[in-house]
Amino acid sequence: MLVYLTAECCGYPISIFFIVVNEFCERFSYYGMRAVLVLYFRYFLLWDDDLATSIYHAFVALCYLTPILGAIIADSWLGKFKTIIYLSIVYAIGQVTMAISTIHDITDANRDGTPDNFTFHIALSMLGLILIALGTGGIKPCVAAFGGDQFQEHQSRQLNTFFSVFYLCINAGSLLSTLITPVLRAQECGIHTQQQCYPLAFGVPAVLMVISLVVFIAGSGMYVKTDPEGNIMWSVCKCIGFAIKNRFRHRSSSYPKREHWMDWANEKYDKLLIAQIKMVLKVLFLYIPLPMFWTLFDQKVSICHFSGLLGGLPDQMQTVNPILILTLVPIMDRLIFPLIQKCGLNFSPLKRMTVGMLFAAMAFVSAALVQIEIDKTLPNFPSSSESQLKVVNTYSTTLNVTISPNEHLLIESFGVQLHTSKHTYSTISCMFVNGYTADLNITNLDSIEPSATTNYTLVNQGKRDFVLRHGEQWCEFSRKFGFGASYTFLIPSTVFSDDCESITEVEDMKPNSVHMALQIPQYFLITTGEVMFSVTGLQFSYSQAPKNMKSVLQAGWLCTNAVGNIIVLIVAELGKLPKQWAEYLLFASLLVAVSIIFSIMAYFYTYIDPAEIEAQVRKEQGLEPEEMEKETLEMEEKDEDQKNEQGVKQTKI
Ligand SMILES: N[C@@H](Cc1ccccc1)C(=O)N[C@@H](Cc1ccccc1)C(=O)O
Question: Which SUPFAM superfamilies does this entry report, sorted A to Z (predicted)?
């Protein structure tokens, strides 16, 4: 048996330093690139909104599916260390390819500032994204498990702290990159023409990925490296297949029942392998309800985006989560969990995860309450059997308008009756009606002909200045806009003689009166839920996995997220409830139901020490650990089908 003597600092293996720095840089690289990806699709490749978001979601989905591949490579073939190195190289190449694809000068032969050959840029960026997805997803289950492998048996307390620090590094990396890369993109750069600097915004994440790889290699001499014990995944599949087949063959009641269905593989497969498969299957079974948490977690971003209470910009939303994680993880670890323990309560990992789910459900209840308040401020929209009409009076006196058969509107001079517009809550829109006798130019708008109306134009919140021009004449006026509001400006013929004073402002839709602070509890609740659920899930997946399947179980954990994302997409396709708050309550109730199911499953789960079980099986087999390892290897190398087929027939029970 290999015994590693690892250098320690404050009770922690020094190699951990390289792993957490590597994770920080990798997450910086990933989230930084993601922060500008949709912008690149929209404004560089000039894709429409639908295409840009579809490709973005497809890329994210691919990143969640590749962990399985990485885990199989690591646990069955290369080992975690080599898998991380090779896939990080693929990842770094992907990031560099992506950065190169954003250099417009490469194909801008006519030097007009736009690429001449979009196919080249699209092909290169798609290749880059595929390599990135392969790299980031592939190394994901290996890095956390490899970090865990660095700890010795006496360092179990430090091992738990490691997963929290690991999570902190993920969020520190994502926070910094989400703040920095959009700023880099806003810079101007270029060889022939100056454009928004996508090469810098994608180049910095590429550099960070190279640094991540270099840091990981730098720690090479200090790591505890465990080699894979043959093609374990293949052995697992064959063993499970055989157990099912054998069970089916012996389905008659004349055969005595066995304690576990995997015991039907006893005739052919090593007891240790069977014990390890049982451990993994038990945990994977427990994971079945978990995707529901991620479904709500991923929906949360949409809530913030559409309600617009914190500014409505998804870019800014992305920083709130990591900021809260950086605050809450230390508070939980240093204060809340020790306090709960001091009160004599056993706050086991599965209980923490259940409570985490309940926190996420509470976040949705809070979102529903805020939505109800928001709905109160909304105007009544016409139902499917009604329509709305807006009449603007630019005549000099009050007018009577009759709509046959018997409806009457009284409209003052420069007044407006009713309105019709689509409601966009997270924005402010305004529209101009030109009552002046000639064409008018308004800052940032096309010119308006006399008696014509502009479309609603989106403007930023706060005080805005407008300049009206006609030939040599001009005047300016300012207005303050509230969020979610919609305005119409009526411009009379006297507009230049009274210096814009006579412009009438009509509030078509009231500004949002729900305070943005109401959004804070939602954020706080969902992130508290994430800390309890996700950090604990990471630790739990490592601690309950047999030594040779640590990456596989990490990948299983990440799969709960992938399935959660798929549910989000299905829900989006299936359509929405008529009331947003009802939808939030539905999600909250579903998660409460799922957490009850999970808590029942957790109640029947017995925590195990995989190393202890493995040692026990070895002892039962009368093998020393070294002998056992040798035996496992030999077993896998033999052609098992030929060797054991006869044995099975002989040992019919
Ligand atoms: N808190 C998230 C990171 C995040 C950053 C910005 C907006 C939202 C979220 C986090 O820590 N993610 C981890 C863990 C994870 C979570 C879900 C699926 C895969 C991994 C990460 O490794 O990115």
Answer: MFS general substrate transporter (SSF103473)
